[in-house]
Design goal:
Blueprint (H helix, E strand, L loop, with lengths): L1 H26 L27 H14 L4 E3 L4 E3 H4 L19 E3 L2 E3 L7 H7 L6 E10 L11 E10 L5 H16 L5 E5 L5 E10 L16 E10 L1 H6 L8 E7 H9 L12 H4 L4
Parallel strand pairs: 1-5
Antiparallel strand pairs: 2-4, 3-4, 5-6, 6-10, 7-8, 8-9, 9-10
The structure holds zinc ion.
Zinc ion binds next to loops.
């Protein structure tokens, strides 16, 4: 009984204190109040803008999740890469313009800021050379020494999709590319696949999507063609696989995805520089 009495008294004390304080706040500042209440609980809170993740990070999460459902795991990679993995092992000719400092940023004589995520492919393939069946993705920023325009910026993001399996063939590369395009751009996206040569794949392909910024009329982003290249890759050559320590009968593929261009196609933006400029009038549209 004693406990019940004390609890009742405590409840009445707390209820009285709550009622008194509430009346005091609703009445506003008192005459004794000097107007410099450091807490200012009677003031209305100002609204603060809500932030959100950058659209590139959102797309990366979406893409990693898409490929995870197909059995691809995410591998870490470095933005600093040696020229051996950037060019030599990918059979890029010694006089190819992409090796020039006018195209690629050199940190040291033989170390560059990677100009594509394909430079990570052989590292991961070589790391697990005993495992003939592999599926992994590498994603992150790449860098090119270019004058920024609607199509190219000094920094952009790529995802590299890589698989090795004895039964892999070119139709699998095409299937992965078309399926991913449908997942991120919608099943009615106007996507086309065409042959394209790269030194480290044979055969190679590129995937284009119709330019939504100009409605296929031609603009700076699509370079007047009405189509925007969003992916490229193919079956890795036996020479490239040998560089990764793989036996010649290995079959492996690589597919590089240009993430900024996918976002441009998805949101009908006409310039990939929007994703580097941190203009909240643009970015706030995405969250
Ligand atoms: Zn266009």
């Amino acid at each position: 009984m004693e406990v019940a009495k004390e609890l009742k008294a405590a409840r009445e004390t707390l209820a009285r204190a709550y009622t008194d304080r509430r009346s005091q706040l609703e009445a506003g500042p008192s005459a004794e109040d000097d107007g410099h209440d450091p807490i200012g609980v009677a003031l209305l809170a100002g609204s603060r803008p809500r932030g959100g993740r950058h659209p590139i990070q959102e797309l990366i999460s979406e893409a990693v999740q898409h490929f995870a459902t197909l059995g691809f795991s995410l591998h870490e990679s470095s933005q600093l890469e040696d020229i051996e993995h950037s060019f030599d092992l990918l059979a890029v000719p010694p006089d190819h313009p992409t090796r020039s400092p006018a195209h690629t940023f050199y940190a040291e004589d033989d170390i560059v800021l990677r100009s594509h995520t394909t430079s990570s492919v052989l590292r991961v393939l070589a790391r697990e050379s005993t495992n003939r069946s592999q599926r992994f993705v590498v994603v992150g920023a790449c860098h090119r020494n270019t004058v920024p325009n609607a199509r190219f910026t000094t920094q952009f993001h790529q995802m590299e999709v890589v698989a090795s399996d004895p039964w892999l063939r070119m139709s699998d590369v095409k299937g992965l590319a078309v399926t991913f395009a449908a997942a991120v751009l919608g099943h009615d996206a106007d996507v086309r696949v065409r042959y394209k040569a790269f030194p480290y794949v044979l055969p190679g392909l590129a995937v284009d999507v119709s330019c939504s910024a100009c409605d296929v009329q031609g603009c700076g982003l699509c370079r007047g063609t009405g189509y925007l290249e969003i992916m490229s890759g193919g079956m890795l050559t036996s020479g490239t696989l040998a560089a990764a320590g793989r036996p010649p009968e290995t079959r492996a593929m690589a597919l590089a995805i240009s993430l900024e261009r996918i976002l441009c196609a998805r949101h009908a933006l006409d310039d990939i520089r929007h994703f580097l400029q941190n203009d909240l009038r643009v970015l706030s549209q995405f969250y």
